[in-house]
Amino acid sequence: MYNTLEQLAAAAADRPMHEVVIADEAALTDASPETIFETMRARWRVMCESASLALDAPQPMQPPLIAGQSRRQAVYARGATLTGGALNEMMARALSASEVNASMGRICAAPTAGACGVIPAVLHFAVQRTGAEEDEAVKALLVASGVGAVITRNATVAGAEGGCQAECGTAAAMAAAGAVYLAHGSPEACIHAAAIALVNCMGLICDPVAGLVQFPCSFRNASQSVNAIASADMALAGQRSVIPPDEVVDAMYRTGRALPASMRETAEGGVAATPTGRRIAKNL
Hints:
The protein has 284 residues and is mostly helical. It has one domain: 2-methylcitrate dehydratase PrpD. It contains 13 helices and no strands. Helix 2 (17-29) packs across helix 7 (134-154). It is globular, with a radius of gyration of 18 Å. The termini are far apart. The model has no long low-confidence stretch (mean pLDDT 98).
């Protein structure tokens, strides 16, 4: 059993990290390792579907604040871009899952519905870069879930409690760890990638316009995907968080609790409180 990121990494000293996560889940649920792995495979496939559905077909939603965002980014990814086609396709996939969520479609909340695009977008990108097979992607998803479990136990993944840093930020931390695992990084690199991702979005507020999980949620799924893959590369390069990963998790929680209520999913602050944001809410 592990309750901290350091414990998770230490337990992976003598066996693969995804097996540590499976063993912990089996102890908690009495499910067999095979059942846990296949359950995670099913969730990975749901993620892949939601991250591709809106690439060419904008999803219907009311109001259509973010309809067509994914296709717009996907089309742009095929041309001349500043950051390259692959990175733009990753953002398009994050936007796709956000569109599917806003249209009441089938997504995998990881760790929440509002942050559902980060992990599938990042791990799909990492799969493409590494040439990994589906089983390897599922193992990376298990590692990501282990990181998410620790943050859930010791902090929060609720925007209403900790701001968007707790939702999209946690998703970025989970995705960063999973991406490092796919690239055969060490357990230490995995948890430091997670810490770096959290540091990079510390204090990020939750301010959904009209209280809807559309804007700015979708853009934050895309931007935190970039944060995750950048954090993974930094950890793989040997960068380490100066503050230990578990202290970073604690800092995220304390920061979230210190945010005023207007910055924690109430739609009373940030962009939700702008004249246009208030007008959208009133028109609804």
